[in-house]
């Protein structure tokens, strides 16, 4: 087993983390994801700990990472409004996620507003914390643990639907913007022209989606097809998806078929080289604005937002007992309670 590099709490924060790719990746897997529901905190709260103004950190050139579990619950809210908590618990039992079932049981025992017959769609208004806690547990990818996708399959959500929960990207609707550009520059282009270009780039799946439209013929103008929102949503989803192989061509290849210049296409979607994860962008920013910050400062920041999972990532790269030593004088309620429990355990021995 490869030994991890060991750092000291006094080591410079930015230089140390940016020079250790494994540590950086571990931290952004924990902190990049922004949860809409519940109280789980992320990289933005670390930025606020270091007194970086919201206007500044919102300008970081980074991609937004969402929770696929939360997207799944939003899907259930709109497509399966009759789904009750008992149904979700049954799905969780079937994938052996008793830890997540315990979250639901705990809420049922604590609050009168929640029981097995409660509609899942009502949680968004009454108890969004439940969704946040479940998402935090089901999003984590660990060997031996079934995740949100297994629950989606157990709840009989079609695979074609749930595979988009993780890949959807609201920050960059490139295909939608491409069609708007084509509509402006080539107002007389037809659905047949579009199908011809798609045949050239071998996207038969998109052609099939277009031909499902019963409202317009292939001789109709593209702008008429764009008015069929259901068909266009499917078309754009197919062309926006990032494929594992470069042999499958996407919206940018379609744009080139229309003769749109590369600089215009680049404006529709930032290149991958320009996109960095928000946690990395934050650490780079700290390297410039607060070069004196140390790993000990990061430990305090992560502790302050209750992200023990991120501290566990950092712990591997520090000497045993380092984190506890840094936080030994912390007087927060959580630490005081932990000390009382330790004292009680020691007294009982």
Q: State the helix count.
A: 23
Low-confidence stretches: none
Strand content is under 5%
- What is the overall pLDDT average? 86
What is the strand tally? 0
| Overall helicity | 55-70%
Structural class: mainly alpha
The oligomeric status of these chains comes to single chain
Measured between the Cα atoms of the first and last residue, the distance is 36 Å
Order of helices and strands: HHHHHHHHHHHHHHHHHHHHHHH
Detail the topology: elements first, then pairings:
Layout: H1 13-18, H2 21-31, H3 43-49, H4 54-57, H5 68-79, H6 85-94, H7 98-110, H8 123-126, H9 128-139, H10 148-154, H11 159-162, H12 174-185, H13 191-200, H14 204-210, H15 222-225, H16 229-240, H17 251-257, H18 262-268, H19 278-289, H20 295-304, H21 308-315, H22 322-326, H23 333-348
């Amino acid at each position: 087993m490869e030994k991890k590099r060991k750092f000291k709490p006094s080591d410079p924060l930015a230089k140390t983390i940016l020079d250790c790719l494994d540590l950086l990746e571990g931290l952004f897997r924990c902190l990049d994801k922004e949860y809409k529901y519940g109280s789980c905190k992320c990289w933005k709260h670390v930025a606020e700990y270091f007194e970086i103004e919201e206007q500044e950190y919102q300008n970081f050139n980074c991609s937004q990472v969402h929770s696929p579990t939360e997207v799944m619950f939003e899907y259930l809210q709109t497509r399966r409004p009759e789904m009750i908590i008992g149904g979700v618990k049954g799905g969780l039992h079937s994938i052996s996620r008793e830890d997540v079932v315990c979250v639901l049981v705990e809420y049922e025992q604590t609050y009168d507003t929640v029981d097995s017959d409660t509609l899942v769609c009502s949680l968004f208004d009454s108890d969004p914390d439940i969704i946040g806690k479940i998402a935090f547990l089901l999003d984590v990818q660990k060997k031996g643990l079934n995740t949100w996708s297994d629950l989606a399959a157990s709840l009989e959500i079609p695979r074609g639907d749930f595979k988009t929960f993780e890949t959807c990207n609201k920050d960059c609707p490139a295909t939608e913007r491409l069609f708007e550009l084509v509509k402006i520059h080539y107002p007389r282009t037809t659905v047949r022209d579009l199908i011809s270009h798609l045949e050239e780039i071998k996207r038969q799946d998109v052609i099939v989606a277009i031909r499902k439209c019963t409202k317009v013929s292939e001789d109709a103008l593209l702008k008429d097809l764009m008015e069929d929102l259901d068909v266009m949503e499917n078309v754009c989803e197919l062309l926006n998806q990032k494929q594992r192989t470069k042999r499958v061509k996407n919206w940018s290849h379609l744009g080139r078929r229309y003769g749109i210049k590369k600089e215009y296409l680049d404006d529709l979607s930032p290149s991958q080289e320009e996109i960095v994860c928000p946690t990395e962008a934050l650490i780079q920013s700290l390297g410039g604005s607060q070069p004196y910050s140390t790993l000990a400062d990061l430990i305090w920041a992560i502790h302050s937002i209750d992200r023990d999972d991120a501290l566990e990532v950092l712990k591997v790269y520090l000497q045993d007992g380092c984190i506890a030593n840094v936080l030994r004088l912390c007087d927060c309620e959580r630490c005081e309670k932990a000390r009382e429990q330790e004292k009680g355990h020691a007294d009982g021995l």
